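By convention, the token line describes the chain's fold. To illustrate:
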Amino acid sequence: MQNPPIADQSLAWLLAAATDPVLIVDRGGAIALANPALEALFGYTQEQLQGLPVETLIPERFRHGHQALREGYTAEPHPRAMGAGAQLSGRHREGREFPVEVSLSPLRSPDGQTMVMATIHDISARKAAEQALQESEARMRAVFETAVDGIITIDEHGMLERLNPAAERMFGYREAEVAGRNINMLMPEPHRSAHDGYLAHYRATGEKRIIGKGREVQGLRRDGSVFPMDLSVAEMTLGGKRMYTGLVRDITERKLAEQKSEQLLQELSSANEELTNFAYVVSHDLKAPLRGIGSLADWLATDYAALFNDEGKEHMRLLINRVHRMGALIDGILQYSRVGRVREAVVLVDLNKVLAEVLDLLAPPPGIAITVAPGLPTVAGEPTRLQQVFHNLISNAIKYMHRPDGQVTVSCEDDGSHWRFAVTDNGPGIEPRHFERIFQLFQTLAPRDRVESTGVGLALVKKIVEMYRGRVWVESAPGAGATFYFTWPKECL
């Protein structure tokens, strides 16, 4: 490569040693010399750059304007520091563009020609960082302006600096009205008087009460009204200056809802207590005369049996059965009303023992075989409630079994987070249209004078199972028997 005519060996050596991209342009705008750093920046070799117009290194759309600026500078050459001119763009040989800053220095060649030395900095990284910062600031500004919660910024002495629109609406002040004033103006007494002392104590000792923790406090609106709010405070340091940002949420509606909920719970508790007392009183007042009727009916049926004709005997039988049914109904209603209100301790219950006790109480009649699968699990629950569930399901199967070879099977399967139990019979079955109805209170499918039933048993089963986050359902078809399923959680409630 030939040395440029306007440069001696020392100038070429200095340019080659420079780490910044540098080029020298003659009065006509032709590139006379470029150093290796510039070659690397623009993707050209020295031979390729030699004699090219300097506008080759800028995007085509800017070339005409740049030529005019260059000619004006050549007419009155003067040093120009980096960044003092307009933002410029460079163009790589492959066509990609990138932002640059350029410093200019006039030179005089040995033969007296006016030259210009340009030092070029690629500022792509800085521009990307500036763009990222601008986008971050835009996002933060959007959050600040649109946040539903109030955002308040104060300095280390408690002087207000920023309020977002939500905080302005919450307290009734415009940001410009309160800027520079003490944050304690937004607090009712005694918090207002204590706040400055709290900040001073924190600065002296570092002991935190709210900062980084959050708590429920009270705020003071412009109109003098006091309201409850959640406050969380974050500390930060900007330029060596300590700042605090508070996130404020008006919880007036939540507190009102909590008060209403507490009141409803109190009313519910009172109603439950009254219901319990009412159930016991009613049962006592109903069962006392019912026992009298039952005793009288038994006495008549026994001592005056010879005086009754067949129709009279049937009437007496129906009377006695209905007295017994009424007593069972009262007991069933009492049991149903107690579920969820009267709780036993939740303990681990061995269902193998529970089923043995249930079968002993039921004493299945001859002709009905009951099979219980071995190895039933131990579950957490109230022993009495579990006994009621199995007792009602098995007794129902027995009650509606009208065949000499009745079979009832109790089984269990693992169903993930629950156990799934099944009570299966080979009885008359149930039509699908009755599946939902049979779990409703007082609902029976057979006439009560033919099958003694209160219509409480399955409703009681459903209430107990659902109280323990399980579910109960039936699968059946007429003439094909029925299977009653229910699930019970493995984890203790």
Q: What stands out?
A: The chain has four domains: 9-128, 147-250, 254-338, 344-493. The first strand starts at residue 22 and ends at 25. Residues 101 and 121 are 5 Å apart (CA to CA). The first helix runs from residue 9 to 17.
